[in-house]
Write a structure and sequence with these properties.
The protein is built from nine helices and no strands. The protein is mostly helical and 200 residues long. 71% of the residues lie in helices and 0% in strands.
């Protein structure tokens, strides 16, 4: 649901993947990385690559590519058209890529009940969902629905700005929270510049 390859991988998936290997005494830059850490990192890269290609909102270059196609060929590609066109290859990749990776880089640890116990403990410490979290879930679902079904009515970029504005207005995040992510602002400014230059 995160419309940025960098944000989805670096901000959501990586923190989870990074914290699993130490549970199995698997550390980077060490022979123990072969136990499970290296495999998990590789699967994160593979999974991110597939999801970034499968969904038009999965990576910024996809949206840029659609913009080029629209301006050069006059063809509009919707979220659903992109998804359905990639679905046969995407499903195949989602099945085959993990199997090939497992065969070529089989981890030393293939099963453990420790992860489930750790996850249950962590969820217990987090407690129940808060109002802010429920609001965020609603905004994510709204954004997803608008991307999938509202392409002819509202632009994908407008949906992103609407979601961020509603997050601010409904106090899910503060302006201070948003401005402290300098890498996200750098990406926004650089991509906006590239789009304008490409249009020119």
């Amino acid at each position: 649901f995160t419309p940025s390859n960098t944000a989805r991988t670096g901000g959501t998936v990586f923190p989870v993947v990074k914290n699993l290997p130490p549970l199995f005494d698997s550390f980077p830059n060490d022979p123990s990385s072969r136990r499970i850490g290296g495999y998990l990192m590789w699967m994160m890269v593979v999974g991110t690559s597939i999801s970034s290609s499968m969904f038009v909102t999965g990576a910024a270059p996809n949206v840029l590519g659609i913009e080029f196609v629209h301006k050069i060929a006059g063809i509009n590609i919707s979220w659903m058209q992109w998804f359905l066109a990639f679905l046969p290859v995407g499903l195949l990749l989602l099945i085959v890529a993990p199997l090939i990776s497992y065969y070529l880089y089989k981890p030393g640890v293939t099963h453990s009940d420790e992860v489930a116990g750790w996850a249950n403990t962590a969820l217990g410490e987090m407690g129940k969902l808060t109002r802010k979290e429920y609001t965020l879930i609603g905004l994510v679902l709204l954004s997803l629905c608008l991307w999938v079904f509202g392409g002819k009515i509202v632009d994908a970029t407008t949906v992103c700005l609407l979601a961020v504005s509603l997050m601010l207005a409904l106090h899910v995040v503060s302006w201070k929270d948003i401005t402290k992510y300098s890498s996200a602002w750098n990406t926004l400014v650089n991509l906006a510049t590239l789009v304008v230059m490409a249009s020119g």
